[in-house]
Amino acid sequence: MTVVANIGELARRNMRQSGIVVAFVAIVVLFSVLNSNFLSPGNLTNIVLQYSYILILAIGMLIVIVGGHIDLSVGSVVALTGAVAAVLVVRNGYPWWVGVAAAIVVGLLVGAWQGFWVAVVGIPAFIVTLAGMLLFRGLTYQVLDSVSLSPFGGSYYLIANGFQNGLLGGQGYDVFTLLIFAIAVAGYAVSQWRSRQARLRYQQVVEAMWLFVAKIVLVGIIAMWFAWQLANYRGLPNVLIILAVLIIAYTLVTQKSVFGRHVYAIGGNLNAAQLSGVKVRRVNFWIFVNMGFLAGIAGVVYSSRSNGAQPGAGNMFELDAIAACFIGGAAVTGGVGRVTGAMVGGLIMAVMSNGMQLMGIETAVQQVVKGLVLLLAVAFDVYNKRRAGVAR
Questions:
Q1: % of the chain with per-residue pLDDT over 70
Q2: Residue ranges of the alpha helices (H) in 202-279?
Q3: Which residues, 6 or more positions from 199, have their beta carbon under 8 angstroms from its beta carbon?
Q4: Is the pLDDT confidence value at 1 over 50?
Q5: Which residue ranges does UniProt annotate as crossing the membrane (predicted)?
Q6: pLDDT, tens digit, for every residue of 7-47?
Q7: CA within 13 Å, CB half, 1
Q8: Are residues 244 and 226 in contact, defined by beta-carbon separation less than 8 angstroms?
Q9: What is the per-residue burial (b if ≥16 Cβ within 10 Å, else e) of 276-291?
Q10: What is the per-residue pLDDT for 143?
Q11: Using CA atoms, how far apart are residues 75 and 93, in angstroms rounded to an integer?
Q12: Fold of the domain built from segment(s) 3-165+234-385
């Protein structure tokens, strides 16, 4: 017998995920009221360009946190991978793709190094990545000889600063951008329908049909409105294409693959996972290799965006990525969290930072606000766990 839930029941079942979406919408509305330029095409594009590397890091950090670990070194790895790319492309004149490949390889090597100490030697990830934060920052200074390298220019610069515009024409707007977003909305609708049907087959609670349709329509309207803003400005940012591919790929990895299920099993109950035959060491090793891989991509995007490499690049990036995951619904104890939630959490941080910058709020105050938001998000998670425990 299937059960169809109303809005109140769904909100109680999925309070954390529903809450962050409502909070995101409320923050967007607040800043759009306070500053008329907040929702302008130029500013929306700027948000995508400025915070894409944090969202990329948040994808990898989510998997780390779900597995019951933490990674404090990603900011230093972003700096190191960007420095390697700059030395090859700027200083030695290699093609742009050599710099990209080298940065990603360095990220993979860093991930394998840290994965070895965590998975094989058994040192807690907090200690390993804290050491890595210092180690890789020092290596960055060594690689750059303590000076900045710029500019990249050319194709490397366009990775994070270029746009796809005019591929299919359009009178004052870019048809290609609208088409890509329309395909994405259609894909989202099909995915949600299949997920709903699967829950019905297993006699799980689902929303009423009218509510399901309303949700799809609302998401479609918001997505196409955002696409229209981009299409009327400069088109589809290259970095948004990179980010979309990563989100889709890692959503499938975490929700559909054996590796993803094992990560959730380890973070949810380590002893049960071991007794179930999960190869914990192997999974933990690849968790950190994957984090290094995504840190390498983020390093390429950030160095491209800034059009150079600096010894101090990536400072505090790890905290922004961690905050995005926790605000987006990841549990402190591991085993809980989704890629989409981390993306919403990252967008909340991005929107708050951008909105406060437009209002001219001091950096010190911005840090205070973001710190309070993170604290409240984790407190809400703890509150929900305690209430669930009392209910049982």
A1: 91
A2: 209-231, 238-256, 258-268, 270-275
A3: 205, 206
A4: no
A5: 20-39, 51-70, 77-110, 116-136, 175-193, 205-228, 234-253, 283-301, 321-351
A6: 555 555 555 556 677 778 888 888 898 888 888 888 888 88
A7: 0
A8: no
A9: eebeeeebbbbbbbbb
A10: 95
A11: 26
A12: ABC transporter involved in vitamin B12 uptake, BtuC (1.10.3470)
